[in-house]
């Protein structure tokens, strides 16, 4: 994409945003990000578009990505004074967007963290901006206090109202206007979905079964499965029951999972993440467990064959060193998500399936009665206890 074309797209996106055509503006920002995924400004612009469209979860993700890129940029010692000043000012804008999106997600503790970062640069804020930030800080602290008081009002031993945090295990799946694939529709047959789920579940959990649950899981009984009542809002939540008697200390779930190899802790098997033997004394055995196409080593013949059957044919010989290098720089386990996504996409391409239609993906999240409930609960877990003074 030429520089002139990029400037034209940016100008068009800005005009669309200013005329409140946020969906069209979002499409152009997405196109620009596909061209340059390391442009913090575009992540910030798309975050604002998502926020205007009413998708704070996407707005937050975009804003945090832009903030991460700016933090990485400002950590460089080769920046010119002009580039450094531009990055610092843009980071203030992005921090404020992070604050707004966290607040929209009702994650007040997280919003306060961004306020702390903004106030650390108070000398760069205008008096009006500083006043707005301080007012938000006071409002958020008050909301946290009210929330904690409400939860502790039930006077239960744990200090938390059981009714308030019920059904925390459910998830919410948002349908976006630009979605081209929807695994679940109103015409989906729940019975067929459960059959597919249990077929995939049985090999590593033969004594367990996935079943639909009522709004209150405590009321579930096998005899009443066909007459279970669900709320009218969303699809029923699912639960796991025992289909056979389970002995004490018996292992009931043994799943290999989708493992990744980041190479940070010595040579690992690319399929199961098991440690590879460094010894090359048995060259014949090593030859059997090495991919002939790219030289990738596996811990066993079974792992090599399993990798070739599921994903490795797509990745064989491809240079993914830039992804591995990026992951290696990560400071938390969350950086490994890039390798998980890479593995999932490789499986999808090799199996000729849409990524969202794969069984291992489409059942990861189900609908819930209330959006972002889990985010709010985590917020409460880390909220400091209030003391009377």
UniProtKB/TrEMBL annotation:
InterPro entries: TPR-like_helical_dom_sf. This is Uncharacterized protein. SUPFAM superfamilies: TPR-like (SSF48452).
